[in-house]
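Contributing new records

If you add data, match the layout below exactly. Sequence lines come first and carry their own label; structure lines follow with theirs. Keep one chain per record. Anything else will be rejected by the validation script.
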Amino acid sequence: MSYATLDDLVERAGDTEIRQIADRDRDGTPDPDVIAAALSDADNMVDGYVGAKYALPLTSVPAIVITWAVSIARYTLHRNGAPDHVTADYKDAIAALKDVSRGLIALPVAAGESAPSAVSGEVLSVSPDEVFTPQRLRGWRC
């Protein structure tokens, strides 16, 4: 399941821009494989950050996640350099995703959707057997 769709990209950027950046064969329509690759890259990036705090896949996708995925996919589609406003949206999305992964932003997830189990904080260690035990030192005097 993709977080964003071609319709989401068109709604945000407009049909003209999407055709300009995703029509690689110059037939007048966005290439489905180019769009799919950009959306997949965006999904992977979102999952990488969101997965640190939330169970994946998200059963319900908050609108803000769609916005971030659109910003990332749109930036990815501008392979010859994105305009400043597109770059700013991309950087804002990544910054917000980093905040999600650190727990500074909570996603409005559906009831019952839980975060991954937290680490208990226990420290575990492995060490070799003791060499000088009281039993082995019995009878030795200094």
